[in-house]
Protein 1
Amino acid sequence: MNDPLVLAAAVAVLAGATFALRAAGPLLRSRVTVPARLERLMETSAAVLLVAVVATTALTEDQGFAGVARPAGVLAGGVLAWRGAPFAVVVLTAAGIAAGLRLLGVP
Amino acid sequence: MFIIEVVRTLWRTLDRALLRTIALVCLAVGVVGVSYGATAVTSGFPVWFPVLVGVLVLAGSSEFLFVGILAAGGSPVSAVAAGVLVNARHLPFGLAVADVLGRGWRRLLGSHLMNDESVVLALGEREPRRQRAAYWACGLGVLVFWPAGALLGALAGTAITDPDAFGLDAMFPAVLLALVLPSLRSRETRRAALVGTAVALATSPILPAGLPVLLSLVGLLATVGNTEER
């Protein structure tokens, strides 16, 4: 394992850079007034990013395919959510289907 | 002092259904935190390490990557670079939810509480007061549950063998998917998300983690030219 000092420095840099990325948006927006259209575009961009996060974490693992079980669970959860199922049911179904498929030997 | 004030306002604004959703999101985050803490300790890190990183960085997927690269013997520089790249999406997130944070100290703390879950909950609400309440309640909850889960997992360590066997890896994307659905009300957003996700998935095999998600913003081009319709 790495030298503790190097490790601490790495954590500090990651934490600092992450905070800077988080704070940059609100700071910028407090300085400039943006037209309503641009504001709507920013909201759309957040939704687009979130859907991409869902898709990539559901389907990929280390630049490869994550297997069948995980996306199948997520898809089942998504369908239930879309049909208006309670949130707890959605989450537990997703985990349950992924776990069940793996129990049956599906990767 | 202002934390108490924030909590009191949250209590008044949030209804039971939203509170229950936020509690479940925090619980799910905590469970993923348990697997994060266990992973970190079994790959040789001391117990306090994932907990400290959890509080300071407070961004799950980048922490998994950061700890994983270090554990595999990768250089600290590449571990930090990979983590920062994954967290780059917080910049556009911040542009979208800036109004939710407030000013001064609130903006500083509120920025730190920015994550997929708090952002998606804020986007799902229409009224500014409820947006603010959902964002802060979820953000503060994650600030507690993520490191607490990591601590629990780190203490349990090798007792937790394979989190994937319980389908825990399907939980995070399912949580986010359920919460992002209300933001996809407009057809314009749906089209942008569809194009963006296709781009992200197509580039995932060749680009380092984080970059494909950023490239999904290409999907916004699909909305250009349609913006005047409404």
Note: The two ends of chain A are 32 Å apart (CA to CA).
Protein 2
Amino acid sequence: MINLTIDKKPLVVKKGTTILEAASSIGIDIPTLCHMNLHDMNIENNPGGCRVCVVEVKGRRNLAPACCTEVAEGMEISSHSIRAINARRTVVELILSDHPADCLVCAKSGNCDLQDLAHHLGIREIHYQGEQSHYREDTSPAIIREMDKCILCRRCETMCNQVQTVGVLSTINRGFHCVVSPAFEMNLDHSSCTYCGQCVAVCPTGALTEVDETGAVIRALSDPTKTVIVQTAPAVRAALGEEFGMEAGTLVTGKMAAALRRLGFDYVFDTDFAADLTIMEEGTELLGRLNKYLAGDQEVKLPILTSCCPAWVKFFEHQFPDLKDIPSTARSPQQMFGAIAKTYFADKMKVKREDLVVVSIMPCVAKKYESSRDEFAVNGNPDVDHALTTRELAQLINLANIDFKALPNEEFDQPMGESTGASVIFGTTGGVIEAAVRTAYEVQTGKTLERLDFEELRGMEGLRKATIDFDGLPINIGIAHGLGNARKLLEEIKAGKSEFHAIEIMSCPGGCIGGGGQPYHHGDVEVLKKRQKAIYAEDKSKTIRKSHENPYIKKLYDEFLGEPLSEKAHHLLHTEYFDRS
Amino acid sequence: MPKIKLSEKTISQIKEICAQFDNQEGELINVLHQVQSKLGYLPAEVQEVIAKELNMSVAKVYGVVTFYSFFTMLPQGEHPISICMGTACYVRGAEQVLSEFKRQLNIEVGETSPDGKFSLSSLRCVGACGLAPVVTVGEKVYGRVSPQQVGKIIAEYQEGCPSEAQSA
């Protein structure tokens, strides 16, 4: 144990603790900028590069960066000596001297760590005027890179390389010409970027943001010739409230539906409905493969992998194209919804495909890319016209002068608004496979499940496994969130060492609750945990908690699709994958 | 940048060099050094092979290649000329020496002469500050170079037989 004092307060901490952690343990909040530590998830960005966290250590010649200096016996630290404060302000002024001063119109305004810091330090003037670095803007279907706003904190690099193992972003060039870029300065859409958006989720400034589609949605809503419908992904309801100052983990399902109705959407539907549909298709596919395998078919591909996550799909298309026959062919709930909306629902409402606009609200930036994939369009008309992030929805609500907190709770419209508890948990790591188990168990065994809460599938660990007893038949299940963890399971499969029958994969840490399109968590993992709790609470509150018991799903099969994996279902609800290596 | 196709022989050369360093990610700089000395430069396609062999992202490889001025992605002349623009060389007149090379060869920094004989680059400190200003031509180091000596240095290589260079 190490004895030291910070701002004259004595404390004892474990060896290896950083000054930043030690200070935080006694309530001293040293400002940081590049540093990010997502505890419990093993995600840390600690380059010590920005020098905002410098403190004065008695007897030490220079100031010490608190984020990457370990405490030592007898240290006397001053976190706010005049020398430390001056250095900190100088550092921030220097960063600002090479930063576009367009805060008023920046996409990140109000959510920018640099802006907050300048405010916190009371910067009123930038004493350093000099050349500013300029770099071309790079726009992709989902993410915009505006490198003029990059402060080289390297958080995006940590997410892209260490956490996601996608390896698209790296710092290139030297000194003033330094910039974070894909190899050979290619544009993101030429790279193997998965559009998971974790770089966007952690970027402290406006250097990385999502493509803004709010304008297009407003135009559609004000076009009298269009019928505009909306679907909302499960994880959105557990996070949207944060954008309006509500506590993380507050469920706002009813208020969200009310807000969407006030925004002018003709029908307010739920992606959860399509999640139930996904379970019907994916679950049937799983049982089909499993039963073939049990019958001795050596050709059958196991484990089956979930395919709801577009970033994950793009990841294996680039990095493991030889395994592209293994994931389920089921489309994601977003795309299933779009396909059903523009056929079944459009027919029902007697609306022409071109006059029906499908908008989705997603916790995700990759969904923008997914909706733009060629295979999800008919004669150039996409199944999903616009995919907005949770943050973009909040922006629309603000624009429309809606007092979100004061809204009443309203219900979704029918037929595509009815959902079960199983579909709600799609929003968190472990949820898709738990939903699949609830249905697959009953279909396979013909028995009713006695318990619906599969605690063994839940949690926040990056890699989890569990064996579920299907009435005497043990089914091995693997779960990974974060693409780096997914990679480990894929390597096992490649080596023929996988013990699993089914694997759930979500690209973002925590699953969709931690998606790249969610309200910024600013490095606080507790936010994700609270969202996860909210998701399970919503599941518990539902009367129907198994996808195959959703009455509107049954009706959809009776009236339109026939049965799971029917020819029509194949055509509308399944897809194929491409080698992009 | 135009795409080039690497020959099987070049690819196996690169793989061999990577293998000499046990395909260790940490040996990237050594690998790049060796490969550049064999091929003369490090085009994108070469970096892709190296990244694959060392099991690292090509973005990271590119990051290192663009960080060090020694590495180049453009084919070099037969005799690559580098002028040190580090602090010591700079204050002792490296800039005038560089201008003289540019004038006499009629090329800019980063370019290669039309006959493919000379290319020009500037670098930051070769660690011979006592000899400032320093010019290197290939492996050979010239110290205390003045603009007046530039013509003589170029002439050494124009005959095609740099006798002094070999003895140095």
Note: The beta strands of chain B are 79-84, 118-123, 135-137, 140-142.
